[in-house]
Amino acid sequence: MYEIVTHPIDAAAVAAAVAEASAGAIATFIGTTRDHNEGRRVTRLEYEAYPEMALRVFAHIASEANERWGARVVIHHRTGSLDPGALSVVIAAAAPHRADAFEACRHAIEILKKDAPIWKREFYPDGSSWVGLGS
């Protein structure tokens, strides 16, 4: 249900992982890498993670979503070198009602960006910089 991967993420498979008969809605968030940031052209990104801790954060996020919205949440985040346009994170949240699925999905990405030990480094034509905690 929670994965840190080095290969491309299959968004449809992540959404399928939360599908169940009791779910009236599945909301997904697909984070993609941009080709620009703060006026600079980004040629690629590298994500690094502390996987054991990140997976614990993902599990905690899913537990909160289940308690608050009755949602089932799956989170996959990619690490390594990614070209612009690549999927970096996919979150799927299934709940009995659409509002709950949307809230759970939004909560998941916001807490992931704040708490998960995942860092990204942006590469530009003239150098690179670490963007910090978050994805």
What report would you give on this structure?
The protein is elongated and about 50 Å long. It contains 3 helices and 10 strands. It has a 4-stranded mixed beta sheet with strand order 1-6-8-2, sandwiched between helices. A 4-stranded antiparallel beta sheet has the order 7-5-9-10. With 135 residues, it is an alpha+beta fold. Helix 2 (51-69) packs antiparallel against helix 3. 33% of the residues lie in helices and 41% in strands.
Would you summarize the structure shown here?
With 135 residues, the protein is of the alpha+beta class. The chain is 33% helix and 41% strand.
Topology:
Elements: E1 2-5, H1 11-18, E2 25-32, E3 36-37, E4 40-41, E5 44-49, H2 51-69, E6 72-78, E7 80-82, E8 87-95, H3 98-115, E9 118-124, E10 127-133
Parallel strand pairs: 1-6
Antiparallel strand pairs: 2-8, 3-4, 5-7, 5-9, 6-8, 9-10
Helix pairs in contact: 2-3
Main pleated-sheet profile: 4 strands, mixed
Overall pLDDT, averaged? 96
> Uncertain spans, ≥5 residues at pLDDT below 50?
none
Structural class: alpha+beta
Return Rg in Å: 15 Å
Q: What proportion strand?
A: 35-45%
Order of helices and strands: EHEEEEHEEEHEE
Using the alpha-carbon principal axes, give the shape. elongated
